[in-house]
Amino acid sequence: MVSMEDGCGENQARFNKYACACAMVASMISIIFGYDTGVMSGAMIFIKEDLKINDTQVEVLAGILNLCALLGSLAAGRTSDYIGRRYTIVLASIIFLLGAVLMGYGPSYAILMMGRCVAGIGVGFALMIAPVYSAEISSPSSRGFLTSLPELCISLGILLGYLSNYFFGKLTLKLGWRMMLGIAAIPSLALAFGIVKMPESPRWLVMQGRLGDAKKILLRVSNTKEEAEARFRDIKTAAGIDENCLEDIVKLPSKNRGEGVWKELLLRPSPSVRWILMAAIGIHFFEHATGIEAVVLYSPRIFKTAGITGKDKLLLATVGVGLTKATFILIATLFLDKFGRRRLLLTSTSGMVLALTILGFSLTMVEHSEERLVWALSLSIVATYTYVAFFSIGLGPITWVYSSEIFPLKLRAQGASIGVAVNRVMNAVVSMSFISIYKAITIGGSFFIFAGISVLAWGFFYFFLPETKGKSLEEMEVLFSKNTRPRNVGIETQQRSNV
To answer: What is the mean pLDDT of each run of 10 residues along the chain (499 residues)?
Structure first.
């Protein structure tokens, strides 16, 4: 086990390697999900040819995972409050394993759909639990970096999926796509065993009244003993326990164990909780309403429309999408705790508006021209990569960081699950309707719509999302009080983080 030494330099003392290792292992489940998303974009080309399915069936196959993920995410919040964050990750891994085996077997469209549905439930669990676990393990000074690791891992998984398309696509038609989908079972099994070696979330342990165990883990994942003590006091206070309590085990009211949460979230929320819920739902809505799934899942079709021909060239151009996404999310993880969430989020959305507008224009020119326009083809490719880059440097990772850190302790798991449910619904809507929409209004027109939605997203982020950089998880409810002004919070947070 890795821990920080008291004699470390100032820069090292701000980063706990053991907490980072915990977050990295938990985030590995996101690689499996990302792989499943990325590999399907290329596998659909071969599945359509092998199983003789139509475009409507392709849309359903692509989107059904997200509808099932909706069910998984809603169940994951209550499950993680009951069995703990760590064993919820184990459960998600097992579900993924079953889904991968069914898809890899895939003798028919029905069995393939069944495997996709099972994997979707695992997706719902994974998307909720990995960021929550990472947020609850990490210190305020490194929370942005550690909580963005799941999104980075999703991007790495997508890239691996694209590479799998390229290499397994050279096998026979019947074997190639089944290998693409079935191989995900191997890392699922490895993660199920690996995660049991990691510690449980100290905040979940406090909610169970296991104060002694929580304190031991906080001493290992905090930068200093003083920070661990301060975090321990804040968590006890948030859980309704006297901060001076020295007992190792205490009995808590049942409402602190996850019961009555839905009433506090949806039926009778306080003004600050209402704002938090609106912020979480809004950022998850706009993450997919701005079109990222259309690009990630249907990039071969976009490039084919632009003028690229041949399966190898299409899959190779798609690898560039995955490489761009992974590279820029890695950059984002390094700057989240330095520049803050709001600045990157607004910059990201601005760039997306510009890139989507250019992409819509270039694809429209291609569609209305009888000749092959090399400049429009090049512009389409550049605009696609630019859009993915801007998405990945802000909106992509910040959605998960932000929504996992803003809810109060006892509302966090189930509050985050609502955000994930909205995320999956929008993902399903885009992935299951994109082909039909672009056939109705042209593919260029569909990206003009995404550009318009991105403008609305920028306005929402500017007016409703305060800066959370440098704040402890226990301070979030105060941050979202009525008197807080999002545009001014960044200044205050910057001053606090410099103290």
So the answer is: 37 68 85 83 84 85 82 85 89 90 88 91 85 85 82 85 85 86 85 82 90 92 89 86 82 59 80 91 94 83 78 77 88 85 93 95 86 83 92 91 84 84 87 86 91 96 89 81 53 41
Structural domain span for residue 271: 14-204+259-497
Nearest CA to 473 out of 201, 82, 74, 125 is that of: 201
CATH code of the domain covering residue 41: 1.20.1250.20
Predicted model pTM = 0.73
The whole-angstrom separation of Cα 140 and Cα 336 is 12
Q: Tell me how far apart the alpha carbons of residues 121 and 478 are, in angstroms, rounded to a whole number.
A: 34
2 CB-near residues (< 8 Å, 6+ apart): 17, 18, 21
CB atoms inside a 10 Å sphere around CB 2? 10
Asked, for residue 407, whether it belongs to a domain, the answer is: yes
Kindly state the tokens that stand for 266: 């949806």
How many domains would you assign to the chain?
1
> Crossing angle for the helix pair 486-497 and 341-367, nearest 10 degrees?
130
